[in-house]
Write a structure and sequence with these properties.
- By secondary structure, the protein is mainly beta.
- The protein has strands at about 35-40, 45-50, 60-65, 70-80, 85-95, 100-110, 115-120, 130-135, 140-150, 160-170, 175-180, 190-195, 200-205, 210-215, 225, 230-240, 245-250, 265-270, 275, 280.
- Helices cover about 0% and strands about 50% of the residues.
- Strands 1-4-9-6-7 form a 5-stranded antiparallel β-sheet, with no helix packed on it. A 5-stranded antiparallel β-sheet has the order 2-3-10-5-8, with no helix packed on it. Strands 13, 16, 18, 19 and 20 form a 5-stranded antiparallel β-sheet that branches.
Length: about 280
Amino acid sequence: MRVPFLLSACLLLPSLGVTQNLVKNGDFEATQLTPWTQSGPGVNPGVFSFDTNGTGLSRSYAVNPGSNQVHSITQTVVIAPIPYEFSLDAAVQAGSSAFSIRLPTVTIKLGTATVTSHQFVASRQNPTRRRLCARITPKQAGPQSLTIEFLYPSPANAGSPRAYVDNVDLRVALDPTFCISGERSLGMAMSFDVQGAANAPFVVFVAPKLLPNPIQIPGIGGALELDPTLLVPLLTGKLDASGSFSLSVTVPSIAGLAGVPLFWQGLEVDSTGPALGWASLIGFY
């Protein structure tokens, strides 16, 4: 495997438009919160401008949860009993009255099943960020609730920690899927995670720009979403018997890289031939 860091300074780019996303208003850019509905106690809930994913200000859903009472937002999605991939960007801004090392927990549920969950903890990073990624195969078809829950044990007030979520994405899974979990602060170790077919070799590409329209390549499943004139093969390897790969990587502090939107897309070769996964927007800060 190899991880050649050939990234250089890039121009600021618009966010990835995801037409295949089953979630409506997952980027919270609509003038209304709908089709999301909110419930449960929380201080000052709603849509606010915040740098949730580390690549610049955008509209995000925010709330100060507290008192061990769940605050949630929910919408209905129509699904089938096939594999899906889920992702969202989450962040917590520590408040002036936060003395505990424990910060809010963000949990995602599809129906009654937990898709993924993360409990934030205090660190030198403020805000603390996390990209939540998961794969799930629902047992039943039809409409189901997609719920994002916020929970914090201490009382909620204007000075308690504030949680943000953005870029909520649920779609039919294509192999391979790629995620960078943990803090993506330059100079820190983070986990590069790939999922796909068992024992399949793969390569993950990165580019600072998407194609205006994805293109299908003869003999390769899926579609290329990255600009082929700018993409770089950044990570190669082989998935294990469970179809997983994880590598701890310390991304160096390259001048001009912090805050630049970068687009990632994986390619794997399994028993059915080569195939491309979905592209994703993941930047460093």
